[in-house]
């Protein structure tokens, strides 16, 4: 794959046309809650509940933002992020990581793996929305 | 004509002079100003006690009877001194380094300090020397009688004169030989007196000789003509006798107790031997120079039948030269006295040390070692021994009746003493020589000497003529003078040949056949290799020590700072400048003491010896070093054991630490899991409750659905908490089992209905109810909980299109076994061992549980005394629950 989301479209165009979020989460109820929140904000929400093929799904789906759970069946969110960042054109894709394991070590690991924002569950809906907006704004501007 | 009274006065005066000399020398030695006493000259002159009255008077008689054969008596010692001085040096070195007191002590010391050997040698020496002492008494008595004959006015009693002579000599020997107990058994006074006597007898003999040659014969030319004309001058050599007697004289020179006394025990410095090696043969040459002229002139001059043994005395007397006769008499007197005194001293030391003292000590039963009066006892026993030996000589003389027969006794004594030679030489040069060898050799040689020489020589009842002629009991091959049928030999040569050769052979064979004790080995090595390890004649003196080398060595041992300090201190004490002291003996000893504090005495001595003396490391040193090394090895062994223990402890600690780390990690992982399992439902609850609170315009449908989700997740949370608490209680063993009676069938009925009621998917259960009629005594509720869990799992995870579960019951080896086998794909082999762990979940399936169910089941079954496990290879998901039948039987 040449180019990538950053190069394929002019910035203005992309911001207007596609506000797509890819949610990788294996808890159906949490998936449903986030879908509800982001859809109302005007996002196109795609979901995936499996860790094993998550990197391929991200690459194929070309989202503007990824929301990634850590404890996923098959492959952990940390590994997914690490592998993703090694791919060409994926170094700046905003990734919001949500985890139910709220230990300090996990945050450090995530930052090392190149996470854009790290949040622990349970989260407040406002926080998630703010984080998504911020990340998207940063990516759009810069 | 000197009267007998004058003679006695002269004798007394001479003896008093000797007393004076000996006393003064002892005083000088005691004050340490006696260096001139310790000269090679005094040493050489003291060796002259070899020349006794037998030599002084007898040599001329010997020459008059047997021609030049008398030379052999001088030839033996000369050969020893000239060609065997290195052997003597070894003897002296050994004697000094081992601090031996007599030849018996030396032999005993060499062969493992055996007192049996010492007694043998002592007895041999006493037997050999007693006739010799008698000979001296005879010569003095004879010389007295010559004067007595010439002086009709005197009342001369031979018997009493012998007695008084013996008593006087004993007194002298006791006074100066036993005045003190020196560690080295040295008697400077006696040795000095002997040296003076040596000069007196030489001067006397030379004076007579010069008188005879120039005064009687009229110069060198005429005397040579006379000698040529005489039979004495004929060069007729009996090779057998010459060889035998030369050899005997040589052996006696080394083995005679009195020779050993002056040569080894009284030796101050082994370098004196170097001088003696040429000076003593010179002395012997001077002593023998005029023997033939005196004999020739005597035979011509004196009437037929006069005793040639006394020519030295009778020629001057006959020619009216009284003063010369007096001098000659004094010479003979000093020859006899010096020999008797030293021999008595040497023998008394042996008798006292090896016979009297052991007997006295054993009679004291060990008390003597603590009392302080041993010293007096020793001196007393020496004095008694001297008196006894003199008495022995006196009685021997009285019993043998004097006479010419005594003359040949000298050689017989030599042959007896020579029996010590194999053991002595073998001990010095052959490490393989053993105590047994020495004992056997000595016994054989001694026996043969007595049988072939001593007894035949004494004749009479001791050796009847028929035995001499035909052998004992008519065994002719045992004839004393023709052993093994070898006939026609000179009895002397015959005896010496057989006794010494069989002695030596027996010594060698017995040595080879026996094993030396460790002490013998050690002593043997010390004797044979004495030059390799004794530190020279005077400890560290005379050696070239390199202070710098010593410094380097000391630094290694003590460390630089301490070594510098020590050397500095020593240098200051010596009054020198700089920090390196002179390697004086005092310094070396101090250094050795200093070092021995660190490395042990033996090692310190050996190390300094390496630097200072080159090769002053003795076997004893090495053995001591080995001992120290063994100690070090033991220490290091202990250290090794300790270090091994430390290693073990460290390993245990490491293992404990690993275990703790593992437990800590397990705890972290568990908390992480719990956190995750709690937060996940709470996330949904919070998210939907916020949605319901904040979102306007939710439809009623949405509202209902979200409330249901919140409810479900709350229930999930509750279940999780229940499970956690349940597990915690079970794991901590705080559970109270509610034991009751029932049948397996009832429990299974309850479990199946509970697990499958309200299930999303129907599952067919196949059972054999007849087989389930097994009475149980257990916690029925807990057992049902396990069954419910297993059945629910089957219901949740069985992936078959038409799920079914077969429950079968067996009675296996005293256990009730319940198998639950479904028709699904089962659990993959790699996950089978994990399903009983907490929070284990297989695959991605979300069945709503937190993964604690099977962990709880395992805990419950453990409490109930049974177990739950996965049955692999049963063709589907398969769990087996087993209960001990003992519960059942106990219930009945």
Automatic annotation (TrEMBL), chain B:
SMART domains linked: HATPase_c, HisKA
Taxonomic source organism: Ruegeria marisrubri
Coiled-coil annotated spans: 636-666
Protein's name in the database: histidine kinase
GO molecular function: phosphorelay sensor kinase activity; transmembrane transporter activity
Top-rank taxon, per record: Bacteria
Domain (Histidine kinase) ranges: 673-887
Primary site of residence: membrane
Reaction(s) catalysed by this chain's protein: ATP + protein L-histidine = ADP + protein N-phospho-L-histidine
Compartment list: Membrane
InterPro entries cross-referenced by the UniProt entry: HATPase_C_sf, HATPase_dom, His_kinase_dom, HisK_dim/P_dom, HisK_dim/P_sf, Na/Glc_symporter_sf, Na/solute_symporter, Sensor_HK_Regulatory
TM annotation in the entry: 6-29, 41-64, 70-88, 116-135, 155-177, 198-220, 240-260, 280-303, 323-347, 377-397, 403-430, 437-458
Pfam family, one: HisKA
Similarity-based family: Belongs to the sodium:solute symporter (SSF) (TC 2.A.21) family.
Alphabetical list of Gene3D superfamilies matching this protein: 1.10.287.130, Histidine kinase-like ATPase, C-terminal domain, Sodium/glucose cotransporter
Listed GO CC annotations: membrane
Topology class, membrane: Multi-pass membrane protein
Enzyme Commission designation: 2.7.13.3
Keywords carried by this UniProt record: Coiled coil, Kinase, Membrane, Phosphoprotein, Transferase, Transmembrane, Transmembrane helix, Two-component regulatory system
């Amino acid at each position: 794959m040449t180019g990538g989301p950053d190069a394929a479209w002019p910035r203005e165009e992309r911001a207007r046309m596609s506000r797509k979020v890819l949610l990788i989460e294996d808890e159906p109820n949490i998936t449903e809650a986030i879908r509800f929140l982001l859809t109302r904000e005007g996002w196109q929400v795609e979901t995936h509940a499996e860790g094993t093929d998550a990197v391929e799904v991200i690459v194929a789906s070309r989202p503007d933002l990824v929301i990634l759970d850590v404890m996923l069946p098959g492959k952990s969110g940390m590994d997914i992020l690490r592998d993703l960042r090694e791919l060409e054109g994926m170094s700046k894709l905003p990734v919001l990581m949500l985890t139910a394991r709220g230990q300090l070590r996990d945050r450090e690991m995530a930052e090392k793996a190149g996470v854009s924002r790290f949040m622990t569950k349970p989260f407040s809906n406002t926080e998630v929305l703010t984080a998504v907006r911020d990340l998207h704004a940063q990516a759009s501007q810069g | 004509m000197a009267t007998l009274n004058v003679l006695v006065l002269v004798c007394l005066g001479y003896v008093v002079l000797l007393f004076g000399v000996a006393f003064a020398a002892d005083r000088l030695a005691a004050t340490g100003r006696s260096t001139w006493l310790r000269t090679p000259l005094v040493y050489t002159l003291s060796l002259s006690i070899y020349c006794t009255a037998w030599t002084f008077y007898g040599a001329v008689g010997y020459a008059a009877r047997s021609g030049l054969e008398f030379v052999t008596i001088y030839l033996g010692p000369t050969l020893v001194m000239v060609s065997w001085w290195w052997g003597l040096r070894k003897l002296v070195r050994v004697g000094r380094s081992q601090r031996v007191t007599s030849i018996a002590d030396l032999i005993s010391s060499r062969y493992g300090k055996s007192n049996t050997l010492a007694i043998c040698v002592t007895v041999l020496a006493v037997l050999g020397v007693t006739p010799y002492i008698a000979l001296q008494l005879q010569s003095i008595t004879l010389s007295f009688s010559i004067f007595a004959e010439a002086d009709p006015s005197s009342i001369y009693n031979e018997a009493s004169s012998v007695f008084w002579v013996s008593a006087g000599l004993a007194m002298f020997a006791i006074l100066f030989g036993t005045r003190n107990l020196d560690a080295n058994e040295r008697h400077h006074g006696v040795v000095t007196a002997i040296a003076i006597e040596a000069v007196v007898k030489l001067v006397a003999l030379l004076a007579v000789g010069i008188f005879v040659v120039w005064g009687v014969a009229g110069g060198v030319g005429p005397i040579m003509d006379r000698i040529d004309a005489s039979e004495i001058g004929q060069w007729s050599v009996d090779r057998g006798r010459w060889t035998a007697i030369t050899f005997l004289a040589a052996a006696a020179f080394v083995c005679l107790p009195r020779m050993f006394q002056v040569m080894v025990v009284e030796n101050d410095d082994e370098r004196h031997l170097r001088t003696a090696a040429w000076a003593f043969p010179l002395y012997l040459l001077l002593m023998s120079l005029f023997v033939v002229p005196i004999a020739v002139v005597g035979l011509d001059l004196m009437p037929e039948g006069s005793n040639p043994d006394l020519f030295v005395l009778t020629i001057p007397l006959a020619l009216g030269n009284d003063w010369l006769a007096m001098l000659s008499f004094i010479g003979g007197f000093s020859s006899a006295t010096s020999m008797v005194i030293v021999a008595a001293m040497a023998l008394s030391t042996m008798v006292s040390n090896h016979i009297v003292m052991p007997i006295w000590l054993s009679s004291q039963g060990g008390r003597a070692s603590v009392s302080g009066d041993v010293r007096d006892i020793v001196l007393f026993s020496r004095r008694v021994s001297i008196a006894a030996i003199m008495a022995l000589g006196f009685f021997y003389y009285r019993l043998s009746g004097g006479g010419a027969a005594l003359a040949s006794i000298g050689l017989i004594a030599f042959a007896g003493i020579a029996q010590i030679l194999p053991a002595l030489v073998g001990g010095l040069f052959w490490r393989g020589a053993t105590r047994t060898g020495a004992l056997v050799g000595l016994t054989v040689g001694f026996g043969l000497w007595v049988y072939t020489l001593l007894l035949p020589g004494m004749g009479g009842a001791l050796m009847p003529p028929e035995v001499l002629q035909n052998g004992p009991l008519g065994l002719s091959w045992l004839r004393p003078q023709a052993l093994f049928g070898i006939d026609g030999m000179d009895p002397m040569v015959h005896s010496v040949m057989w006794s010494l050769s069989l002695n030596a052979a027996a010594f060698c064979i017995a040595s080879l056949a026996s094993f030396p004790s460790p002490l013998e080995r050690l002593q043997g090595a010390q004797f044979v290799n004495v030059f390799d390890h004794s530190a020279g004649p005077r400890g560290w003196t005379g050696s070239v020590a390199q202070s710098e080398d010593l410094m380097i060595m000391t630094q290694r041992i003590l460390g630089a700072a301490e070594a510098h300090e020590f050397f500095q201190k020593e240098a200051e004490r010596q009054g020198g400048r700089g920090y390196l002291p002179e390697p004086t003996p005092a310094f070396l000893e101090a250094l050795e003491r200093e070092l021995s504090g660190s490395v042990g005495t033996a090692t310190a001595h050996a190390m300094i010896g390496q630097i200072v003396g080159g090769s002053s490391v003795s076997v004893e040193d090495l053995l001591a070093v080995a001992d120290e090394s063994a100690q070090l090895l033991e220490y290091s062994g202990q250290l090794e054991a300790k270090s091994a223990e430390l290693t073990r402890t460290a390993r245990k600690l490491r293992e404990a630490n690993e275990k703790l780390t593992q437990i800590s990690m397990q705890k972290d992982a568990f908390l992480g899991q719990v956190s995750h399992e709690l937060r996940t439902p709470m996330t949904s609850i919070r998210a939907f409750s916020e949605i319901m609170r904040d979102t306007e315009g939710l439809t009623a449908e949405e509202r209902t659905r979200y409330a249901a989700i919140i409810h479900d997740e709350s229930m999930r949370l509750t279940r999780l908490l229940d499970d956690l608490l349940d597990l915690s209680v079970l794991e901590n063993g705080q559970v109270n089992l509610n034991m009751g009676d029932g049948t397996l069938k009832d429990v299974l009925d309850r479990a199946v209905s509970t697990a499958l009621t309200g299930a999303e998917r129907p599952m067919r259960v196949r059972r054999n109810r007849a087989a389930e009629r097994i009475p149980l005594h257990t916690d029925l509720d807990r057992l049902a909980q396990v069954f419910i869990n297993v059945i629910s799992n089957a219901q949740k995870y069985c992936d078959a299109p038409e799920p079914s579960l077969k429950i079968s019951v067996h009675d296996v080896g005293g256990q009730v076994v319940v198998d639950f086998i479904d028709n699904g794909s089962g659990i993959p082999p790699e996950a089978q061992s994990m399903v009983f762990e907490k929070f284990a979940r297989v695959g991605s399936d979300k069945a709503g549980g937190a993964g604690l169910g099977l962990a709880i089941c395992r805990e419950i079954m453990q409490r109930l005394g049974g177990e739950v496990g996965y049955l692999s290879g049963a063709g589907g998901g398969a769990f087996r629950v087993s209960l001990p039948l003992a519960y059942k039987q106990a219930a009945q």
